[in-house]
Amino acid sequence: MTSEASTASVEAAARVGTAVQSVIAGKPETVRLAVTVLLAGGHLLIEDVPGVGKTMLAKSLARALGCSVRRIQFTPDLLPGDVVGVSVFNRETRDFEFKPGAVFANIVLGDEINRASPKTQSALLECMEEGQVTVDGTTYLLGRPFMVIATQNPAEMEGTYPLPEAQRDRFMARAHMGYPDRASEIAMLQAHSADEPLESVTAVTDAAEVRAMIDAVRQVYVAPAIDAYVVDLVAATRQHPLVRLGASPRAALHLLRAARASAALAGRGHVLPDDVQRLASPVLAHRLVLTTDAHLSRTTAPDIVAELVARVPLPASA
Question: Are strands 132-135 and 138-141 parallel, antiparallel or unpaired?
């Protein structure tokens, strides 16, 4: 990545982060993760209990980008056709014509995605992986950039369905909001109790610049030793005794792309092991399926990823 492209990407990403943090106070790491996933060309899953700002984060990021945005409220009666579109018979032309669904936008906000049935959730699989939609045998390409930002409540809450493994694997990273600290919550009350916070967020970039940022991030150099380190880390999840289903090769690719974006945000033209370690839990943890023994011992997926990050040897030449 050239120094000019690096500087432009960092400046544009900083503008986006600042705009989002004007609404989401006290969560700089969560905002940074969202921007990292954007630059890496991935999709973001935001999971936490109701009322902590999941949808606010998604909406503020979408507003700051200045791209086309569509919102899908996932409900138990939502149909796959509502998401991807349907073919409708036109009496005047005596032919079927395609009516695009809500995924035909640069940024798709999937609110409470795990309240829809697994069948409807699966309508996003092709969109998220291949950037296209196939309806009645015809394929329609989606625009670039294309990012799904989905929110979900914990699966044990009433009226929710767990996301299928194939669906979780297509999200590059999972973010947790958590409760704000005392000072941030007081600041939120003072700033947002009388006004709509999203009204203060204006577009600080556009689709063309976002595409340029994503293309620039792909030029960040990755040493062979870093490639090997990512593969070793992902392979270790498949061998852990408390993991029933480990991370996929797609997870390794996502981890490397996210590490590239992290390096670009830091103003570097190369990836360090620190980039991989920082993103290992957000990228890998939500993909792991744990054994019964893990649940009985109250061991979580982030615990296992942290253990592996500490145990897997760092690349000698990095």
Answer: antiparallel
Quick one: DSSP state of residue 162? P
Closest CA to 58 of 117, 113, 5: 113
Phi, psi torsion values for 214, nearest 5 degrees? -65, -40
Kindly report, residue by residue over 106-136, the tens digit of the pLDDT: 888 888 888 888 888 888 888 898 889 988 8
Which domains, and CATH codes, for the chain?
Answer: 1-219 (3.40.50.300), 220-318 (1.10.8.80)
Residue 305 has pLDDT above 90, yes or no: yes
pLDDT in tens, 89-114: 888 888 888 899 889 988 888 888 88
Q: Is the pTM of this model over 0.90?
A: no
Angle among Cα 106, 150, 179 to the nearest 5 degrees reads: 130
Per DSSP, 114 falls in state G
Computed on alpha carbons and rounded to an integer, the radius of gyration of the chain in Å comes to 20
Closest among 306, 316, 260, 313 to 285, alpha carbons compared: 306
Say what the pLDDT of residue 309 is: 95
Transcribe 41-99 into DSSP letters: T--EEEE--TTSSHHHHHHHHHHHHTS-EEEEE--TT--HHHHHEEEEEETTTTEEEEE
Q: At a CB cut-off of 8 Å and minimum separation 6, what does 135 contact?
A: 84, 85, 86, 87, 98
Q: How far apart are CA 240 and CA 246, in angstroms?
A: 8
